[in-house]
What we know:
The chain is mainly alpha-helical. The chain has helices at residues 12-36, 39-53, 58-111, 115-138, 141-160, 162-170, 173-237. It is built from 7 helices and no strands.
Amino acid sequence: MPLATYRLPSTIFRYVLAVSWPHQVALVVLTVVTFLLEVAPLEIQRRVVNNLVKDRPFLIVVTLCAAYAGAVLIQGATKLGLNVYRGWVGENATRDLRQRVLAYSRVVRSRTPGPQAGGVGAAMIVAEVEPIGGFVGTSISEPLLQGGILLSVLAYILHLDRWMAAAAFALFVPQLIFVPLMQHAINRRANARVWVLRQLGISTVDQATLTAERTNRTRSASTARFSSIWGSSSSNFR
Length: 238
């Protein structure tokens, strides 16, 4: 079969949409529900404290505490469902990638025999597929979840006090500067790690091939030596 049959989309996000776009839509909906529920426990906590300070009836405080426990349980269950769903989507993508890489490496090895194709394929299947599969599950929902929680909490704080919201936003300014720099350094080291693992895979497959060839030569020599000894013994017996 042609190699184009096993080729992946040109970008990672195209692959994410190609392999899991219906699940990504469901993950987006579940993520929006999750970060909207983030504000409910904060508001209930505020009302509990205010009612305690204002010496309101104890029944109202107990009711608010029960509402807070229910909101936390619902929020935790929603996050659990989101994490399980993302893990399932990521595992499906991992299996799809392994099947594609395995089929592609088989075609390449049949056309260009050698240790390079097998070594690169082995390194990709063992070390590179798992992180990409996990990224497929979280590529859209995780940034949306973190950004939604940040914006919803900042909007809630802004509703309560502008200066408190400004102070909370100022805490994130250093992260906006240092996080891109750290991510760039992580990407460089990840590229170096991938290259090293692929070279190790190539050397491992090459060494295994040489060992198999030496074993076959040793067996052939032993068989030839045994045949010659057997032949000479047979002639002497006659």
